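So, can you check these tokens?
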Amino acid sequence: MRYQLLAANIIAALAVAAMPAAAKTKTAPANSITQNDLRLCMGVDGSTHDQQIAACTKIIKSGKVKPPHHGDYYATRGSAYFAKGDLEKALSDFNTAIGVRNAAEFRFQRSLVHMSRKSFDSAKADLAEVIKQKPQFAPAYFMQGLIAFTSADYKDALVHFDDAIQRRPMYFQAIYARGVTKKKLGDEPGSRKDVAEARGMSAKVEQEMEKLGLTL
């Protein structure tokens, strides 16, 4: 479940696309999709995960959203299931969304589900596709590094964290992770430098990374 703790910040960088205009109706028959349904599904104004799931389900079942746009609603519902910790339903929804449209944002979110299920090979396959589609998307490299670190492949983890930082120089989570990895590899001066730099960017980075198993 620990990957849910980082998911909100990462997914925000590659969010599901805005809901298509085709689903927005001018009139409001009793059984139509309303603006409120759309807002609840998207999680606007603090709607709960259960409210998101109910609203997205209503939209999906309405039949009013046509391919490929309905894939966005499956992915949005999948994100809500993931946030609740219902990994099987989240995976099912992301599988459906990707079957409709092989979007990098859907693949990235599914990789987080795979990681939570400890299906690391599947997660790596999704992240490789994300990088193929969006080679400048730094969080994909970070997550590759985290998988390698979890597997004690510290040399490979260092490469991935470096890749993330190259694409986002102020990526303090990746800088801290690189510092922890350098310590594992015996580079104490490099480790201290990276950790100090990351702490200077965020007072909470150490606490955040400890939750992901990245500890000094």
User: Anything to note?
Assistant: The two ends are 21 Å apart (CA to CA). The chain has twelve helices and no strands.
